[in-house]
Amino acid sequence: MNEQAAVVSLRSVTKDFARGGVRALEEIDLDVRPREFISLIGPSGCGKSTLLRIIGDLVQPTAGEVVVNGKQAHQARLDRDYGIVFQDAVLYDWRTVAKNIALPLEMLGWDRERRSERVGEMVKLVELAGFEDHYPWQLSGGMQQRVSIARALAFDPPLLLMDEPFGALDEMTRERMNMELLRLWQESGSTIVFVTHSIAEAVFLSTRVVVLSPRPARITGVVDNDLPQPRNTDTREQERFFELVTEVRELLRTGDRSGEELRA
Amino acid sequence: MTVQPVVYALAAAGANMLGALAVTSRARWSVQALDAVVALSAGFLIAVALVHSTLLQRGFLPYIVASQTIPILAIAPMVVVWLGGRGLPGWFSVSVIAAYLTFFPVAINALRGLQSADPRAHELMNSYAASRWTVLWKLRVPASLPYLFAAFKIAATACVVGAIIGELPASIQDGLGGAILNFNQYYASSPESLWATNIIAALLGIAFFLVIVLAEKLVVRRAPEHFV
């Protein structure tokens, strides 16, 4: 695979839910290039989480083609080509922090020594050293989510799918987690597809923001984010940051309007 | 009637009973332990089968429910006759009857427990392309443990009743069931004997219950794959 080949490639992806015949996604075309940080943003219930699950082969599209890492999405899942992070940490509460992070490594059949070495690295990466033997219920929401990110990154997947991972956190924790995520992204060199409904978060994090319309979701527009890297706390105060936020907001409104016109 | 003489009588009778039981029915404890193992594993295996097939669930659940509405007093003699007719010993029939009485709460709770994991926890397993077996072992079973232990506690006490009732048609004389039947006839003259059997049955139930509580303390919060 050459450097330009897309990590994720969606062609005319459409999804109808069998029950009630609701169309969730319509004709989605998108290429995600290696090392990109793509945000999918849209009104809640628009189907952006469904789109993420289609990329992960957890939900099957009604029509269209999904290629991940140059393979059919199904094969990519079997090859464990991606890690996934949900809105809630979804930790197994009978497992310690270390055992939760080691879960995918057990699946991959790593031996105990290699697992614990990797867990040690991951715990440092997400700054949870000293908490290895804690159970999930002993951690705060932000710490739990860090464990879940460490679990997703533990086996070094080329693609990271994130479904509103910081949606349940308070604003301050969320901004700190945003910074940490950018650092992890730069250190791990992975490609990220990130679902959010926060405009500021999308603009702060991504290299491109994909704006979706209300259901059925279509791509209203794609905003190339030229904010300089690495980003830091000053980024949020730059004029360009506000311009981009406005641009994304306008696109969200356009999507809303075209939706209304279609219904009328 | 004052209370004190009754208490003394009970204590004396209880001691007599315990002595008698210890001498004549050393096998009973192991039989009841066997009941428990049979019932718990039967209930659990039924639940594992049901959780993997909606068809099985729809097909079998009504029979499982029906099995519990048939009075144990009606089914116990049948079991004894059937199994006895095949040359199996009486204590085996008793085990089967006790198991019959106790597999139900285990099966129902295990089924609920095996289904209790968060849908996203299943999605996570799916994202790892985990096999059914792996999902069962790493997700469903550990998630079901709190439910299972709740069921085990019900079963621990119910199996004592099951074993006692099972002994009646099996005409096992040296067990608690036989003793109850026997002391029944002398209740008017020596009520303390019958009372003593009640206390012993209660103590047995409490003992089994405590074993389960202890096991729960050891097992829960620890993934079972590291506990075998």
Overview of the molecule:
Chain A is of the alpha/beta class and 264 residues long. Chain A is 39% helix and 23% strand. In chain A, strands 6-7-8-3-9-10 form a six-stranded mixed sheet, with helices on both faces. In chain A, α3 packs across α4 (112-125) and α4 (112-125) packs across α5. The mean pLDDT of chain A is 88. By secondary structure, chain B is an all-alpha fold. The radius of gyration of chain B is 21 Å and the shape is elongated. Chain A binds chain B through residues 53, 56, 58, 77-78, 80, 82-84, 86, 88, 90, 92, 94-95, 99, 103-104, 106-107, 135, and chain B through 118, 120-121, 123-124, 126-130, 134, 138-139, 142-143, 145, 220-223.
Order of helices and strands of chain B: HHHHHHHHH
Question: What structural class do the secondary elements of chain A suggest?
Answer: alpha/beta
Q: Characterize the biggest β-sheet of chain B.
A: none
Span between termini of chain B = 55 Å
Helix content of chain A: 25-40%
Strand content of chain A: 15-25%
Overall form of chain B:
elongated
The low-pLDDT segments of chain A are none
Task: Kindly state the number of beta strands of chain B.
Answer: 0
On the 0-100 scale, what is the average pLDDT of chain B? 77
Q: Give the overall shape of chain A, derived from the CA principal axes.
A: globular
Number of helices of chain A: 8
What structural category arises from helix and sheet content of chain B?
mainly alpha
Proportion of residues in extended strands of chain B: under 5%
DSSP, total strands of chain A:
10
Rounded mean pLDDT of chain A is 88
